[in-house]
Amino acid sequence: MSEQQQQGSFKKDLRKIDIWALALGAIIGWGCFVMPGTSFLPKAGPVGSMLGLILGGVIISIISVSYGYLIQKFPLSGGEFVYADAAFGKVHAFICGWMIVLAYWSLIPLNSTALAMVSRYILPGSPLQIGYLYTIAGWDVYVGEIALAYLFIIGLGIMNIKGIKSAGWFQTLVAVALFGSVLFVFIGVLLTKPDFTNLQPYFLEGQSKFSSILAIIAFTPYCFVGFDCIPQAAEEYNFSHKAALGLMIGAIMVGAFIYAAVVFVTSVVDPWQPMLASNPDWATGEMILKSIGYIGVFFIGIAMLCAVVSGMNAFYIASSRLIYSMAYADALPGKFAVLTPQGTPKRAILFMMILALIAPWFGRQVLSWIVDMTCVGAAMGFIYTCASATVLSKRNGDTKQTAISALGVAVASIFLIITFIPGMPGFLSVPSFIILGIWIVIGIIFFFIIKHDYINGKWKGVSVEKILLSKMEQDGRL
User: Which of 119, 157, 169, 451 has the most CB atoms around it within 10 Å of its CB?
Assistant: First the structure.
């Protein structure tokens, strides 16, 4: 028997709560607990920040409607790669998939280095800062912190290889702990009966309320990227795909609440302007410590740890399914188009694990340059998905969906454009521009290497959708 005949198939082991947790864990990163003091309050004030984050969640929900529509039409792993092919053909599908695959993968090692950041915030003089090696781009690299990153990269990789059921249960446990910890801190601060006049001025002085809110909405693609992990596991739902949209919107809005809640507890304990003027190392942590003590810092530390680990797990799941689907359609080397008897793309997971193990040696700053440019890839994924939904819904006569998806294209295009506008939150640094250029050049070269097999090979004239549906039929899943 051939290798593909011997391989397993995806297992339908993901529950609704697992999918919700997958999206929430990808949305909330450690930055949620640091940005209130470094980015949100200085740009918009407390109410401006909270309104901007909630409206940002609403805007992202508009984009998610296109994802929900296409998940029902194409219940396949691969997500945006499949959608772009169905609407625009294989060349566009490759462009979309190539940009997204780096965006997903790079967040695994970046989150692993965030574990060191969490330890540095929670444990001053962190015991992990042992075995100093060197400093690269202003970041000190320690053996202890690399060892911690390795522990989670390898551990989560092995768990994902064993099967989606264990990965889904773990994701749910961690996401619930994340939400519960933030809720505990939020309620704890409220019970101290803080002086709400500390929130004044509600918006940043010297600029209009609208400008304050808009300044935070500009962070939206960076705050909420990750909900699009959901379609990558579409073949593994044990429930109707119609429920996917509600789960996405639910995760997005819970994420918006978490962001807003952390801003609130950071700004309500003391008058927020003098507090920021005192240059605290970690404004959120210091205000929680002052309000409810070390128990609060403990729980916010748990939330930060859960945010980091759930993000790593979510992007392991999403990127491995994307790589598998692209490989099965000959857009990537065919060796990745194999599933284990447990239904996991083991080779794709191992490949990502190996690359992730290399990354921490370059320091967090270098990784942040890569992740910054991957926001371009995420925005392109949004655009392709909304554009695909626009085209396909118009073909099917779904007028309402066409209008919503067209609006999604406009919003997602703005997200892409602002990464190239100086002064905007997402404006790419020079190193990020260079990395983006290199990745595009590599993609062009690689495309011409695989072009014959991908476009003119065994799948000539066959859409990615039909290729993957054929695979499902062979596996007995249709």
Answer: 157
